[in-house]
Amino acid sequence: MSGVTGNQDVDIDLGQLVRAVWARRLKVVAVTLIGAGVAFAGAKMISPKYSAETRLLIEQRAPAFANTQSNDGNAGPLLDELNIASQVQLLQSADIIKQVINSEKLYELPEFDDAVNGSALSDILVALHIKKNPLDNPPEERVIDAFIERLQVYQVPGSRVIGITFTSRDPKIAARIPNAMANVYLATQSGAKLDTNSEATRWLEPEIENLRQKVNDAEQKVAEYRAKHGLLPTNGGGNFPQQQLNDISVELTRVRGEKANAEARAQSVRNALASGEASDTLPDIMSSQSMQRLKATESGLQSQISDLSTSLLNNHPKLKSLRAQLADIKTQIRQETQKILASVEGEAKVAGLRAAELERQSGTLRANSAQAGEDEVGLNALQREANAQRQLLETYLARYREAASRADSNSSPADARIVSRAIEPVDPYFPKVVPIVVVAAVATLIMSSIVIMLAELFSGRALRPVDGSVQPAAPIEEKTQAAAAPKAKRDVKPSMLSAPLEEEPAHEAPQSLEEESEFSISSVAHYLTSSRATLAVAISPTGDDGSAATVSLARALADVGQRVVLVDMTGSGYPTELMGDDPNAPGVTDLLCGAAAFGETIHGDRDSDAHLIPQGISDIRQAMRGADRLSLLLDALSSAYDLVIVECGAADVAGVSRLTRSKDVEIILSMPDVIEEEFVFAMTEFEKAGYQRVGLMSGDETIAEDLPRRAA
Questions:
Q1: Looking at residues 226-230, what average pLDDT do you find?
Q2: How far is C-alpha 287 from the chain's CA centre?
Q3: Which terminal residue of the chain, N or C, has fewer Cβ atoms less than 10 Å from its own Cβ?
Q4: Closest CA to 107 of 148, 136, 153, 146
């Protein structure tokens, strides 16, 4: 037996659990070895399975003669994750699987149709209608199902690589199937490209013929329209009237320039003749050969006259002859100058006539050019239509030549390539004997240990009371007497009159229940713990000896693991003296007066884990003006502690009523020296006030037995 009662707080004794497992270590080791042996035998009995993998890289592949622009334009979608996922699904399609099954003749292997051989367990399940009869499915479907169970296709994370893994009992098949699937996939992809090119050529052929006829018709319309409207083409790209107009405009500009030049030359000659200036400086006169000869003769005559004038008189016949010749030459020069002037004026007149004629022709050509421009609008529309048809025809021809050039299987590679081919595996991937044996041994060890621990827990041998379970009465009383030595009546043993109490564990108390006082401090502590009371008001009619017993009660509750706080509402402050380290610590009176915060008034007991709210150092009368707020204080403490004990000292019913709003609280009459009249009077008064849960805490068993039953 564990010695723990059913309604006592207990804890798990981890040491006892470990000792129980260690005591049965031989059995645990034996069971572990048996489990490891069974796992080893089972692993050896399982047929080995081999696995091999082939990897494909999805990338854009094009013939060597393809241009870079077309390759880049088709490479974009291949980088999409959805495209790679689509290729994974394509590799698992039924069409590719059927091609591999037929090419490798897998339907002839028993491994891919286990339903033919069957098994006893499978026959039983089929007979009980728990499992569908595999033979009801067609053989092809059974082979496909077995193939899919052994196949795994996945995308390598963070890449465009697809892995194809196949599992088989035969290592050769395990390596052959992934390679066959990769080959079928590549052939399918290449065939899809070939089909696309073939469909393109079949569609383009009639379209090209139709476009050729349309181009011929459009160009014929352009030629007819051009001939009808006289829009003959020229080297400059315009029509003939425009070209003529341009030529006449150029010629008119040139003729006008010549006319202006001739008029200017004639005017310069006139000016020279009118002013009597030498005309030999004019370009037109100097360019005349006759004028040049006359000028040379004139110069020779003047030279001779000058030479003879030095030796002959002026009236000498020879000088007269030379002067007559010189005058005749000058006359000829003036005549020649007039001729040159007439010639220049004639050129100006001719240029004027030509300019007038060209202006007349230019006007006519302007009208013709305007009409030609209007006619050319229709010609441009026809030319645009013809050009559009021709461009479309050239595009179709280029596409047709490209598609026709890829009609061969070698010219249309699949957009994937094998980067790693499967090789025949040497070691099976399942079963791994060593890991299986290790895992089975560890699992058996853990399970056997758990079974032993559960047995210990259910038997109660691994259960023990919590560390703060109720201690025997004698040690608590000795502790209380040591704390309250300066006061009188310290040696009175406390006892209690309360509701029926439950039994205490036999191994926790050195005396049996019959030998203990049922009104002792330990009994009251046990009662408060089992009843789950949250608030207890202690009244000490006999003074500080009762307050000392209340302090002992709080410490006893703290020793059994209860979170308990004692509020010192006595006039003497004796509980504060017993539990606190600082007599001037802030407490209830400071809290009610607003001189301290709530957290500053809670202090620890120097001899236990209990907490204390001392009396405080503020004026009691001023503090009691806010006594109505004590109920709020107690409610807040009750939400934070398991039990709140209020030591009121020698208080009456009226004073207690100011503390709580409800009458359903524990009233403890702490009377180490029980006086019958005082006890009966106090209980009667509290009962009249509506308090039904009133008990006695006393340490003197004989006095308690002498009390009348009504008082009890």
A1: 77
A2: 97
A3: N
A4: 146
* 555 — pLDDT class (breaks 50, 70, 90): very high
Could you report how far apart the first and last alpha carbons of the chain are, in Å? 36
- Residues, the chain: 712
Beta 694-697 vs 666-670: how paired, if at all?
A: parallel
- Residue tagged 């030049």 (tokens): 261
Pick the closest to residue 627 from 695, 667, 577, 567 (CA basis).
567
DSSP class of 645: E
Helix axis angle, 317-405 relative to 240-275, nearest 10°?
A: 160
Q: What angle do CA 418, 421, 424 make, to 5 degrees?
A: 170
Using DSSP bridges, classify how beta strands 50-58 and 666-670 pair: parallel, antiparallel or unpaired.
Answer: unpaired
Tokens describing residue 381:
């529309």
Which tokens in the block code for residue 619? 């004026």
Lowest mean pLDDT among 208-217, 358-367, 543-552: 358-367
Average pLDDT on 589-602 reads 86
Lowest mean pLDDT segment, chosen from 10-24, 105-119, 269-283, 538-552: 269-283
Using CA atoms, how far apart are residues 200 and 564, in angstroms rounded to an integer? 92
How far, in Å, are 166, 250, 270, 339, 357 from residue 351 at the CA level?
Answer: 102, 14, 19, 18, 10
User: What is the amino acid identity at position 401?
Assistant: R
**0.90 exceeded by the pTM?**
no
Per the DSSP assignment, residues forming a β-bridge with 155 are 162
Six token digits for residue 21: 């497992």
All residues at 6 or more sequence positions from 387 whose CB lies less than 8 Å from its CB, including other chains: none
The pLDDT-based confidence of 109 (bands split at 50, 70, 90) is confident
Which of 392, 56, 60, 57 lies closest to 193, judged by CA?
60
